[in-house]
Amino acid sequence: MQFDKEIATKLKIKYDSNKSKYQNMYDYWRGKTLIDILYKEIENRSNRKAHVPYIRKFISEHVAYGLNAPITYTSASDNTECIKDIEYNVAIQKGSLDSELYKNMLIFGESYEIAYIYKDELRFRVVNPLNACVYCNTEDEAEMLLYFYTKELDDTKTVYIDCYCDEAIYHFDNSFNTVAEPTPLYFGCVPVSVARLQGGKEETLYNDISNLCDNYEAALSDMINNSGDLRDCYMKAKGMSIDDTVAEKIKEEKLLIVPAEGDVDFLIKNLPSDYMKTLLGILEDKIYQISQSVNMNEAMQSNTSSVAILSRIINLRNRIKLEQKCLGDAISNRLKLLFTYLNIAYSKNYNYRDIAINFTISVPQDDVSTANMISQLTGKLSIETGLNQLSFIQNGRKEFEKMLAEQKEIAKNSEDGITDLDKVGGTDEAN
């Protein structure tokens, strides 16, 4: 899409109207919740507030499970040169690129990745709905993106807008007044990849459990403050009167002289001693249930095998696999942009549809059972496919090529009369 000021203006209105919602989502991720605003404080009493950042904990777990093992790429046409070019260009990116894209997708329900040229190399930068807004077509392809930013050391704090279109990046201030000449683009499309959960922000952990987290923090804060000053009790005085001045003095000095005919006691809620503990347990259990997470701090039964652990986290694994598919859509578009760049810069012709993006969930694997299954499929399963099923193999093709190279070297050494394996490769590894 070429630049259209009417669409850009509507996009900015959408960004402004949604920004507060996305800011709340970001605040919950960093542990700033409604308890800071809504928790009722009582003067001259304990008013401590407990923060329990469950949302950040769960998002960190999802990213660790989903991306701790590197993403690998395979070519359906067995194009090894294409895979080498992908791996080279992945290596020059920031190591946190994929995890940053994944994390922002989980926080906001969607995140964006902008492709740009830096020192004659293709680079990618992750932005999110707090500083960008995208307009997509029915195929979820970016047609226009507005990127909002301020300039460092600019005391005026002026907000600028970069508008990404098919042919160029247009540079405006916050009122769409031109501040610089357009920067040409050569991708033939908007160089933006969109990572979006299937349900968008409605499918985020914030939408699922933020209310439960609010109640958990409120109950925990009450429990903490009760231990500090008997928050739920009232003083009961019999046969005597206490005016406001005396009441304030009692609060400060914790001392009260009672006449012989008087009596002082506390009127408190008659609750079971484990009431708060039970309430917190119920809330915590609901938080884990709704988020489809597993409390790994709970003691397991005697069976602690990898199979038992995998069975325990099956719902979490399924949710992460769905998230990986959403992330994979953005990475597939990243490859499309990369191949366009390689075609323009180096006349290399690759098809992004030829590349399979492989995720490995970082959980305990029963490799012994997998290896036994692979051995039973000898002759019916390719070695590369079999190797890719093992958790400690990152790239089945490379591992297969290394095995062939080692076998050729061993065969050559046998022909030359070398039988000491320590000398394979031309050096004596024993020394």
Report the span from N to C terminus: 65 Å
The percentage of residues in β strands lies in 15-25%
Low-confidence stretches: none
> What can be said about the biggest beta sheet?
5 strands, antiparallel
Can you write the helix and strand succession as a string? HHHEHHEEEEEEEEHEHEHHHEHHH
Question: How many separate helices?
Answer: 13
Count of all domains: 3
Overall number of strands: 12
Can you describe this structure?
The protein has 431 residues and is of the alpha+beta class. The chain folds into three domains: 1-40 and 56-204 and 300-364, no CATH class; 205-299; 366-422, no CATH class. The protein contains 13 helices and twelve strands. The protein has helices at residues 5-29, 35-38, 54-67, 80-91, 97-108, 205-229, 244-253, 275-291, 306-312, 314-346, 367-376, 383-388, 396-415, and strands at residues 72-75, 110-118, 121-127, 132-136, 142-150, 159-164, 168-173, 178-184, 192-196, 233-238, 263-268, 355-358. The chain has a five-stranded antiparallel sheet, covered by helices on one side. It has a three-stranded antiparallel sheet with strand order 3-2-9. A hairpin with a 2-residue loop joins strand 2 (110-118) and strand 3 (121-127). Helix 3 crosses helix 5 (97-108) and helix 3 packs across helix 6 (205-229).
List the helices and strands and how they pair.
Elements: H1 5-29, H2 35-38, H3 54-67, E1 72-75, H4 80-91, H5 97-108, E2 110-118, E3 121-127, E4 132-136, E5 142-150, E6 159-164, E7 168-173, E8 178-184, E9 192-196, H6 205-229, E10 233-238, H7 244-253, E11 263-268, H8 275-291, H9 306-312, H10 314-346, E12 355-358, H11 367-376, H12 383-388, H13 396-415
Antiparallel strand pairs: 1-12, 2-3, 2-9, 4-5, 5-6, 6-7, 7-8, 10-11
Helix pairs in contact: 3-5, 3-6, 6-8
